[in-house]
Specification:
Layout lengths: L2 E6 L9 H18 L3 E6 L3 E6 L3 H23 L8
């Protein structure tokens, strides 16, 4: 049974940048590999990424939280601002 999760930026369109988009997609897949959970990118646009996670809702939510944390930290370090929100 799979679950879908979506992360959406409240700060413009950061995923319009191909480099940022590539890091976010690669990070999602890497977290899946590390945790042994299959992750597929369902949709990406300039503001959001939606993933299909072959696990339950709890695991999908945890994976999305880790993706948000790691990519937000990376974006802050590289560009000096958050990727997803100011919170």
């Amino acid at each position: 049974m799979g679950a879908a999760v979506r992360l959406t930026s409240e700060l413009g369109a950061p995923l319009a940048d191909e480099a940022v988009r590539g890091i976010v997609e690669a990070s999602a897949r890497a977290i899946g590999e590390r945790t042994g959970i299959e992750v597929r990118v369902r949709e990406v646009d300039e503001r959001a990424i939606e993933l299909e996670v072959e696990a339950g809702t709890l695991e999908a939510t945890a994976l999305a939280a880790e993706l948000r944390r790691t990519t937000d930290d990376w974006h802050r370090e590289k560009y000096g601002c958050p990727l997803w929100s100011h919170a």
